Amino acid sequence: MSFVIPAPPTASVEIAGTDDRFPVRRIYCIGRNYLAHIRELGNDERKPPFFFQKPADALLPSGGDFPYPPQSNDVHHEIELVVAIAKGGKNIAAADALDHVYGYSLGIDMTRRDQQNKAKKDGKPWEAAKGFDHSAPISPIHPASDIGHPAKGRIWLAVNGDIRQDSDLDLQIWNVQEGISHLSKLYEVMPGDLIYTGTPDGVGPVVTGDVMTGGIDGIGEIEIKVV
Ligand code: MN
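A: This is the predicted complex of the input protein with manganese (II) ion.
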């Protein structure tokens, strides 16, 4: 057997401080996981978590350039804790969920907000709003064996040095364990999956030339330039 065209490369993320990489299968994202962000967008506060995906090849390593995407005039940053899954499973109990985690990083769920608002209004999928090229900036992954499982800590994002998002992981409605448990009831979670766990309030637009910086206490920082 041989491939009829060159096989696409396996998407992967740097492991902090090493030459090793984490191979990526799927990128899941949790919507609406911080109350203040639900309120700023006027969404229902009582719904269970829901999920969408970005393609694995949308990953953009920290330090890279984010090309302002076509077909949008309102592209927003969403800083998020990212969970890397090492062990798969279905119907994972929240109490067991941390056993499935390899480590943590931080990502920016870049969003064409105008496309998303139009999709919501028309009852159409979010694909073009969330899953576009380079829409998943990500920082190097820190293994849980090094940093443990952060349940609290400052999460922030600045644009050109001005703080836009400034919150704490302990304000997540669904914590990491609960997020993995919910997700594993919908899909068989597999090694190589990443989960972007939702953004706090303060989302807003970027323009070409902006520099986004962000961080989570204990997990490092990210820097991405909009070009
Ligand atoms: Mn998000």
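The chain has a mean pLDDT of 96. The chain has one domain: 12-226.
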